[in-house]
Amino acid sequence: MKLKSEKLTIVQKGEVVYFTFPHFDKYNFVKHGFTSKKGGVSDGIYESLNLNFSVGDEHHNVIENYKIIAKALNINFENLVLSNQIHESEIKCVNKSDRGKGITQSRDYEGVDGLITNEPEVALVTLYADCVPLFFLDPVKRVVGLAHAGWKGTVKEIGRKMVDRLVNQYGSNKEDILVGIGPSIGDCCYEVGEEVAQQFKRIKASGNNVFKKGNLKYMLDLWSINKDILIRSGIKENNIVVTDICTNCNKDYLFSHRGHHGKRGGMAAIIQLEVE
């Protein structure tokens, strides 16, 4: 395997490859992973573990891919509940009654870029192909969450909003919350224009993470910006693990919207609490 990481654990089960966070792995009551392209049944531009229903792949292939990754993570396929992402910052609390929504049954919600639950055997799922996956775990109150942070969600500080929900809805102590910032496009590859760069310059967390390239182009470091947002929200820096895997740099293993010029499948962040 050529893909390497000093921050994440790379797991291979048969042909399936996915990533986990070491500071989450030490808790046996949570299962989680961020998928790669590897190990599914889709072909063509979706080869092979495409988990996005809305990019043109055959529906039955995507269903089979979910069954494959659920088995690899030792999660019941029927426990999965899928977000409905629109690059905003809405977060939905879900429970056992939501299992299957977006996968085996229709959703009764729209515009949800973050999912959160304190119920076991509810497997949260959010989708990616360059945007930043944020994994949340409160091991004391036993709450998990996922947030899809593209540039728009990052500007709207979806990470901070998730922290607020953990505190206000579940009574979490900010010092207990663990966060994983998963594989996405890095500052090595994420070029944006003046309009996007100006939006980041207006938020305090951007710091020195917007780099001018010339010709009104900038390189954007979404990893550091999200980390800064989380730290300003009260999360301890030592409780945050930031990926070192860029989707665009690793197109053989990961779907990248930019790297594949929009002709691609999608990866998923998945997390589930276990029964105590």
UniProtKB/TrEMBL annotation:
Listed transmembrane segments: none
A Pfam cross-reference name: Cu-oxidase_4
One annotated GO molecular function: hydrolase activity
Reaction catalysis annotation: inosine + phosphate = alpha-D-ribose 1-phosphate + hypoxanthine; adenosine + phosphate = alpha-D-ribose 1-phosphate + adenine; adenosine + H2O + H(+) = inosine + NH4(+); S-methyl-5'-thioadenosine + phosphate = 5-(methylsulfanyl)-alpha-D-ribose 1-phosphate + adenine
CDD domains listed in its UniProt record: YfiH (cd16833)
Domain of life where this protein originates: Bacteria
Keywords: Hydrolase, Metal-binding, Transferase, Zinc
SUPFAM superfamilies (UniProt xref): CNF1/YfiH-like putative cysteine hydrolases
InterPro entries membership: Cu_polyphenol_OxRdtase, Cu_polyphenol_OxRdtase_sf, Cytotoxic_necrot_fac-like_cat
NCBIfam families the record matches: peptidoglycan editing factor PgeF
Role description: Purine nucleoside enzyme that catalyzes the phosphorolysis of adenosine and inosine nucleosides, yielding D-ribose 1-phosphate and the respective free bases, adenine and hypoxanthine. Also catalyzes the phosphorolysis of S-methyl-5'-thioadenosine into adenine and S-methyl-5-thio-alpha-D-ribose 1-phosphate. Also has adenosine deaminase activity.
Family listed: Belongs to the purine nucleoside phosphorylase YfiH/LACC1 family.
PANTHER family: PURINE NUCLEOSIDE PHOSPHORYLASE LACC1, UNCHARACTERIZED PROTEIN YFIH
Annotated protein name in UniProt: Purine nucleoside phosphorylase
Species assigned in the record: Serpentinicella alkaliphila
